[in-house]
């Protein structure tokens, strides 16, 4: 039993560490996206000023600036889509963590001998099961959102 419990504890810690590392990576990427947004905004402002101020500029130069501006808009839209995906991943990680915590609480009740459980223990156990079900449904909604987003992008 103790070997089984140690293995289970180790796996839980590994899963928790993976969630933590994933959350850190997502946070770093969100910060990078924010910096890139600012850079794109500055480039866009410069291009827009160039387009407005240069009345006597050759048509091919204006076309080139417009193409650059459209590229910036496309890049910004791509980053916004990635940011949206990352925010969904953050929500999913939060739900995973909450589910893990609920699992821990449920295990304490389930490991308790049935004859030693009080009516309050049984009610608490049932509430945790309902919360777990709600958590699973929320995660399912996130998965459907991701799938719909993926299909709409195709």
Automatic annotation (TrEMBL):
The keyword Oxidoreductase applies. PROSITE patterns: BMERB. It is found in: Membrane. Residues 13-154 form the BMERB domain. Its main location: membrane. SMART domains: DUF3585. Residues 23-50 form a coiled coil. Keywords: Coiled coil, Membrane, Monooxygenase, Oxidoreductase. GO terms for molecular function: monooxygenase activity. Signal peptide: none annotated. The keyword Acetylation does not apply. It comes from the Eukaryota. This is MICA1 monooxygenase. It comes from Brachypteracias leptosomus.
